[in-house]
Amino acid sequence: MKPSLYPMQFEPILKERIWGGRKLKTLLHKPITSEITGESWELSTVKGDISIVANGEYKGKPLTEVIASAPQEILGMGVHKRFGNEFPLLFKYLDAREDLSIQVHPNDELAKKRHNSFGKTEMWYVMQADPDSRIIVGFKGKSSPQQYLDSLKDKSIVSLLDTIKAKPGDVFFLETGTVHAIGAGLVIAEIQQTSDITYRIYDFERKDASGNPRQLHVEEALEAINYNPVDAQKHYSKITNESNTLVDCQYFTTNLIPLEGKKEIHQDGNSFRVFMCTQGNFSLATGRKKFEYKTGDTVLVPAGLTDYALEGTASVLEIYIS
Question: Active site includes 206?
Answer without folding.
Answer: no
